[in-house]
Amino acid sequence: MKSILKKISLLAITVLTAATLNASNIIMGNNQNASKVNNQKVTRNSELRGVWVASVSNIDWPSKKGLSVEQQKREFLTILDNVKKWNMNAVFVQIKPTADAFYPSKYSPWSEYLTGTQGINPGYDPLKFMVEEAHKRGIEFHAWFNPYRLSTSSSRDRLSKDNIGRKKPEWTVSYGGQLYLNPGIPEVNDYVVDSIVEVVKNYDVDGVHMDDYFYPYKVKNQEYPDSAQYQKYGSKFASVGDWRRDNVNKLVEKLHTSIKKENKNVEFGISPFGVWRNASTDPSRGSATKAGVQNYDDLYADILLWMNKGWIDYVAPQIYWNQGHKSAEYNTLVKWWSKYAGQTQTDLYIGQAAYKVNDWQNAKELINQVNFNRNYPEVKGSIFFSYKSLLTNPKNATNSLAQGPYSNNGNQEF
């Protein structure tokens, strides 16, 4: 998620430091829209048991750039077969990791993580294939988008000529060694919404999913370069922070409205960083944590507002810490999110850190977390980051899930 590799290495320290942490009307190129994919959606009456499948930097799938069509398909079918074997029922697949696509798009070039070169047609429609094969197996398919990231480097050299970053360079900013679309430009949000709704129109995805990357994680001694846009668009706001939050709020609201207008059955959910605000920052609503990063203040993501307004169907906070953690304790955060999910009638899934199992002292930590979640009726399931971590069966955790809390083949009722 992000560069996810960067996120994995840094998430462990975010709770200890306030320093850095690093999960339209423009028509692009000559790609043709995919034909509408019609197949039976999955009906779920039990807990969600999801797996994030990251494509950025070829973390989970495809395993590397330039694989043949048959190799890519075979790898993805193996993912689905393992998800089924583990008694899980949903995949959250990153189909727009940067300003690129794993499907033919009017708005974005083909992803470099398929062929090795952005803009090169892989020879098939990966998204069509993935949705169909997931649904054949009774597995939900959630389309995971990164709304603002253009590139995991600061160079434009690897962007194809049809990339929005080349067509509209004035919409972009460079920050922390990466390129981003600037949320402070109103046309950017229009472009992002249109590029996502394109998928809802053309594919029978079960959900639209975004993770924690709105404004990027702050980089020490670097100011996000949007002062010109703040002067132009933000004069009515008391602070640049209020203006930035409003930019993201507008994206979330418009995206929700546009998705539901196209297909009211498609879920729209967001997986934010695990701490909204610390109680020391917000005594009335903050959590009893000491996190170095806060959604509201650092990523300008006001999750509670989106929940209160009904702009998201579910929230899946990334509670990537262990039970007993000194600064961001797992149980404390599950209780906090459960409280606000219940008040706002928002479905709650817990994002859990399969990638940290080997670092945790307790080999049963992940199992204990799932069992703890079930004490709270607001928690409707879990999503694990990420597939490759589960595949290695760290400390026998994947087998223990399948043979323990997930042994009933996905029929945990609410």
UniProtKB/TrEMBL annotation:
UniProt domain Glycosyl hydrolase-like: residue ranges: 47-361
Coiled-coil regions listed: none
InterPro entries documented for this protein: Divisome_Glycosyl_Hydrolase (IPR052177), GH (IPR017853), GHL10 (IPR003790)
Signal peptide interval: 1-23
SUPFAM superfamilies documented for this protein: (Trans)glycosidases
Domain of life: Bacteria
UniProt keyword list: Signal
Protein name: Glycosyl hydrolase-like 10 domain-containing protein
Lineage: Bacteria, Fusobacteriati, Fusobacteriota, Fusobacteriia, Fusobacteriales
